[in-house]
TrEMBL record:
Highest rank taxon of the organism: Bacteria
Protein name: MaoC like domain-containing protein
Domain MaoC-like: 8-94
Coiled-coil segments: none
Pfam families linked to this entry: MaoC_dehydratas
């Protein structure tokens, strides 16, 4: 047994496309930056089966075995261009146990064994219904998954050239079927909003060669949105474990917001909403516009999201313009054409719920501080230089400061630093007034997770805050609606 790394590599976008062709898993969470940004991962991730097949092939090239059973778990995502390393945890003449690690975090754990598993005996050969090769990922409600069954076509591309040692061990049909498990989870069941958690399959190099892989959902658990899926065909039989991720939440539309904003309480006011293309910023921009104000929303990576929000606001008779803004770059250079504003809302943020290998990681704290302290102060300085009167700034803090969780230590620490900084801005920058509120957990892209978690409605939380901010920026406060 050894902890010494055996091999390492990173996966590029071209690698993703090549594997998608082999497996027929074109789920956009692996290929589309804009789509993946709205998932819990925040960026495209490597197919779990790709990670497994690469690692298994690498090990079998050095330690040949005739594998009968493959067990694997994918506890954390592996991101593109991230260095992944294989480490052997245990090895005998009949078994290899290994991990794939990235950034000190296990992203895959697997066992390869020459002993046939129970899955062949327990999992009767599934009847093959009409085979398909989905052109688009299925977008199904969780309730539709309980009795889901079918079969996917196994690709004709030769996987042997990419995974020769794995092919020698379990046979080409079984390799193709193993890759097709990614197609089942990512394209067929659960499909679009899926997460591949792991598998246990038995391999038979002399098994059937029908060219399809049948599947049937055996068990679902609505509490965790989890599924167990039986598979059989083309030399493998076993079980897949998957989760159905919640779809990215949609924020309230103008038709819902406008009736809750009486009259035009924000008329004549121009508000900058940093991060106004989605989430809390999107709702804030719509509230401002519904109240007769002029919303200037910023985006960093996705102009499409910003244009969508602006189009909805303008279509409802509101006023809105968009501006690209990067909180990690000098604010003055980006805001020189902004013009006069009355209020600013600061929603710039990195991914909050990040993959972690320990309770405290200094680099993550530095990343959060670059947004919640450095970027915030730089923006305040730029706004103070460009205003002759009072300008009100909203700084969103979080109840995570009081609700200690091992996954959010750095986030809470950085938000605490931001609260302290806000007090200093109020004390020593007389042209600005910062309103700081600790917000509850609110349903946004950032907080939508697989597990059941309570979250407040963004409109309900932000509506009174926007009234407070806008009224403080106006010498003659308007009545609340």
């Amino acid at each position: 047994m050894t902890d010494a790394p055996l091999a390492s590599r990173s996966f590029s976008p071209d690698d993703q496309i090549a594997f998608a062709r082999l497996s027929s898993d074109w789920n956009p969470m692996h290929l589309d930056q804009a789509f993946a940004r709205r998932t819990q991962f925040g960026a495209p991730v490597v197919h779990g089966i790709h990670t497994l097949a690469w690692a298994a092939n690498t090990l079998l090239a050095r330690f040949p075995l005739k594998i009968a059973t493959i067990r694997a778990r994918f506890p954390q995502p592996l991101y593109l261009d991230e260095r992944a390393t294989i480490s052997i945890r245990a090895r005998t003449d009949a078994r290899i146990e290994f991990e794939v690690v990235a950034a000190n975090t296990v992203v895959a754990h697997a066992k390869l064994s020459t002993v046939p598993g129970k899955s062949v005996a327990e999992n009767a050969r599934l009847a093959a219904s009409k085979t398909v090769q989905p052109a688009q990922p299925a977008d199904l409600r969780f309730e539709q998954l309980a009795d889901r069954a079918g079969a996917v076509t196994i690709g004709d591309d030769d996987a042997k050239s990419l995974f020769p040692a794995l092919t020698e061990s379990i046979g080409l049909p079984a390799v193709k079927a193993l890759l097709a498990t990614s197609q089942i989870v990512g394209m067929a069941c659960p499909g679009l909003h899926s997460l591949f958690a792991g598998l246990e399959v038995s391999c038979d190099p002399q098994g059937d060669r029908e060219g399809f892989l049948a599947y049937a959902v055996r068990k679902v658990d609505a509490r965790f949105r989890s599924l167990q899926i039986d598979v059989s065909g083309s030399g493998i039989a076993g079980r897949l474990d998957a989760f159905a991720r919640p779809a990215p939440p949609s924020q309230a539309a103008m038709v819902e917001i406008s009736p809750r904003v009486a009259g035009a309480p924000f008329a004549g006011q121009r508000s900058l909403i940093v991060g106004g293309s989605r989430g809390l910023g999107e709702v804030t921009a719509k509230i401002v516009a519904a109240g007769g104000g002029h919303a200037v929303i910023t985006y960093h990576e996705s102009p499409h999201d910003a244009e969508r929000v602006a189009t909805e606001i303008v279509g409802a008779g509101g006023r809105c313009e968009i501006l690209r803004y990067d909180a990690a770059s000098p604010a003055n250079e980006q805001l020189h054409k902004l013009g006069a504003i009355d209020c600013c809302y600061y929603f710039a943020t990195p991914k909050i719920f990040q993959r972690k290998s320990g309770l405290y990681e200094p680099e993550k704290l530095r990343t959060f501080l670059s947004f919640y302290a450095d970027g915030f102060f730089d923006l305040c300085t730029a706004l103070a230089d460009g205003t002759a009167g009072k300008l009100v700034v909203f700084y969103p803090s979080t109840v995570a400061i009081d609700e200690a969780a091992s996954t959010t230590a750095e986030y809470a620490m950085a938000k605490t630093a931001g609260e302290i900084l806000a007090k200093y801005v109020n004390e020593f920058m007389p042209g600005l007034h910062v309103i700081c509120r600790r917000l509850p957990r609110i349903l946004t892209d950032q907080t939508a997770t697989v597990g059941v978690a309570s979250a407040d409605n963004a409109l309900d939380v932000m509506l009174p805050i926007v009234y407070d901010v806008q009224q403080m920026a106006r010498p003659d406060p308007a009545p609340r609606g």
